[in-house]
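Pasting two entries for a bug report.
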Amino acid sequence: MSYFIRPSRPEDTGLLCGIYQSSIQTLGKPYYRNDQLQAWSGSFSTLSDFGDWLEKSSIFVVENAGIPVGFAGFEGANEENGRIASLFVHPEHGRKGIASMLLEHLMNQLKDTGKTLLTTAASELSKPLFEKFGFTVREIETTILSGIEISRYAMECRLIR
């Protein structure tokens, strides 16, 4: 399979929402309870809300045969530090290096803008990937979605120029 990274386009929103939901529901199962998965994957009440969330970040999409199969984004393009805000891969394309490809791409993009510190809030699923790329855990934090508590890892990575 051949994968290609490109910037997201407005017409991607529906497919990216599907990737977001199926990634959480399927790949998150070993790590989270059903109520947590439902709260997390349903955290946007409309497609428009999901699109608004995407617009807050610089989003990159991985395609296979012209179809999006994963996406990731960062915030803080105009700030001193950057924040990895999203990283999701469709379950049918999991464990093929797509998440690594996306994270490496984001880190290079941020490094090119002069960022020296990156942060993220990593799930149980993504924590080992972020550690592989040099992120360390600052603290375990809890977020509440639809009244359900979900733990995640506040992580950071210093970029070397």
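Entry 2 (this is the one that rendered wrong in the viewer):
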Amino acid sequence: MSRDHAGLAIAEAETYRGAIPQHVAVIMDGNGRWAEARHRPRRFGHRAGVETVRRIVEDASEIGIKHLTLYSFSTENWTRPRAEIAALMALMREYIEADLARLSREDVRIRILGTRDGLSKDVLKMIEKAERETQSNRSFNLNIAFNYGGRNEILRAVQRAIAAGEDMSQISESRFAEFFDTVGQPDPDLVIRTSGEKRVSNFLLWQAAYAEFVFTDVLWPDFNRTHLIAALDEYTGRNRRFGASDATEVA
């Protein structure tokens, strides 16, 4: 997505009238660079990123998207400085504590994707509380990929399938998908990555097999409803063939 497209006036982008994808996933990138550009510590950028999460969750729901997956902390992020990791963990706790009651009232179901290995007891307790208290909600599904890695999820899915007695030499793709963290949800139609990077970074490797990708130079703390709608507009203009040939093409 070009900077000009991403810079559409908010008045022009308030209402999205295109085909609405069921599931949008976002690689939220650029918090650190956003903070550094302002000569502030990286944790300042991460906190600004949480405010963007609040806005985008509301915008996505209003637009009509039913499933939103946000990539917040990867299994590779453990290599970051300890102070930054501590700040990210604290922000996760703060977000759930501050927003859980409101999200539950708004009929939002929260699901935390990823492995629980390495997480502190208080973070685990907060995750379990969020999932338990919203498990009956149906209007909007918010997935937070936290301590998540696509390869790790595939390995865990294999382990779950074996533990369930599945014959891995005979298992179908549809049956195998039931052992993933996103079980019961449609695969993402659209994956957005902010900050100008153009890679998947171990995100939803199985589920995003046929997703459309939109890359924007906008840093995550600056990402807003206008940018989301611009990405949806770009998605609408794509021809999604899922491996089939285009009937309009000349052989």
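Dev reply: Rendering is fixed now. As a check, the viewer should reflect this: Residues 1-13 have pLDDT under 50 and may be disordered.
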